Amino acid sequence: MKFEGLKAIAVVDGVKGLLALCLALSVNAIAKQDLHHLAAQLMQNWPISPNNYYVNLSLNFIEKLTQQDQVLVITVALMYSCFRFVIAYGLWHKLRWTEWFAFVSGSLYLPFELHAIYQNPSHVNFAILLFNLIVVAYLYWVLKRGEKALSIMTK
Length: 155
What we know:
Blueprint: H1 5-29, H2 35-44, H3 53-64, H4 67-92, H5 96-119, H6 123-154
């Protein structure tokens, strides 16, 4: 059986893992710095008024971040990264259990994507939902096709 789509999904999962790893490394790199000062300095370069409500809201949020929050973000990002790398490896090598894992994890995102569309119906949210539906449907097809092949071989 050839399921070349699995390699494409593996690449997408690998990229998700890489992005999560970059997030963890970025948060770790700025963990020892004064985040409020760093954010204020970055925002000076943007054409946004410092009196803007959202700028002040962001700066207040950054002030409240603690070292413990940063460690939590780093830990969750590293765990998510490892999770995505394992799925990418398994899909690339057509390991059956990762096909199931990818199907279940992809299906878990669907209610959140539907909620995002309910909250903000935009082209981006619809595109994300459509992409995930295609991936989940393809994984379902792969799993069903694999079960049929296994049942034929065991008869």
